[in-house]
Amino acid sequence: MKITSLTFLFAFCLLLTGCASNQQFVRFPDQTKTIEDPSKGRIYVLRPTVVGSAAFSMEVDDAGKIVGNIGPGGFLCWERDPGDTVISSRSENTSVINLNVEAGKANYIFEHMRLGWATPRTELEIVSQDEGKKVLKECHPPTVIK
User: Cα(60)–Cα(111) distance, rounded to whole angstroms?
Assistant: First the structure.
């Protein structure tokens, strides 16, 4: 009887925590093209590892506008007008990077999870196109929510 109670408790806890979502709230560009609109720049935010709990997704913003939530092994992708912008990721903390978006160019950002007090901490890192393209092949796209 004890094993049944522990199994039930474990299953109940899993239902409460759920799985981390990978959802995008802005237009998701055609992935068969390097850049869909050559007058814009493309941004990828990739979460390449599953370190930590799969129950946590991180909110990603572009200049204060919510782009989506990214879970482990997922990515977000969008195109925007060229110029300087601030990309941020929010969890227990907020990680912020400044990015100069150029027309016709793709930018790759890794989101890393770090140990936090109550929930994981987030850290953004700009990476090279070669490294970004390599990791992108291992990540899954978001569900687009309109």
Answer: 10
| Token pair belonging to 133 | 């393209």
Q: pLDDT (tens digit, 9 = 90+) per residue, 30-75?
A: 999 999 999 999 999 999 875 554 567 889 999 999 999 998 899 9
The domain spanning residue 39 has which CATH number? Answer: 2.60.40
Average pLDDT over residues 124-129: 96
13 found inside a domain:
no
Domain range enclosing 94: 19-144
Please, how many CA atoms are within 13 Å of residue 124, restricted to the half-sphere of its CB? 27
Q: Please, what is the end-to-end C-alpha distance for the chain in angstroms?
A: 47
Rounded CA-CA distance 89/87 in Å is 7
Structure tokens at 114: 């770090």
CB 57 within 8 A of CB 22: yes
- b/e sequence 98-124, b meaning 16+ C-beta within 10 Å: ebebeeebbbbbbbbbeeeeeebbbeb
| pLDDT tens profile 109-119 | 999 887 777 77
Give the distance, in angstroms, between the CA of residue 110 and the centroid of all CA atoms in the same chain.
8
